[in-house]
Amino acid sequence: MKIKPITKKERGDGGWQFYAMCNADGTCPLLEWLSGLNKKYSGSIKRIKTILDICTENPEGPRLLPVEISHDFDADNSLFEFVAGDLRVVWFYSKKMKAAVICILGFIKKGRKADRTTRQLAIKLKKDFASAESSTGIEVIE
Q1: d(Cα 71, Cα 32) in Å, to the nearest integer?
Q2: Quick one: which of 12, 17, 51, 92 has the most CB atoms within 10 Å?
């Protein structure tokens, strides 16, 4: 399993690090999705980046954010989401990497709840990560 740093925080600085989950070939679907969004979402994309930067600098990390910005996506599976306008980024805490958040997918919210397919994909991606973290390991790529 490969992950790519989203934020540029040096480990050991006491802050949090945010990673995007990547495919075996090193491509990161979340980052590609964000970069391919329509220009009307540029403000929301900047807000997501600002949220990550704020969390990176604070020892509390995502816990410092109000519920309007970060909250449960699927409480039963310990999945959360960052909110910026209609954009959502689903994430979870790494169990083995200290002060690390793994961002796994993004979507545009169109209704009151995320669709079932998005929820099932997020759960699968988290399970895949947990399995790799326990067995084959996680490779951080640049």
Answers
A1: 24
A2: 17
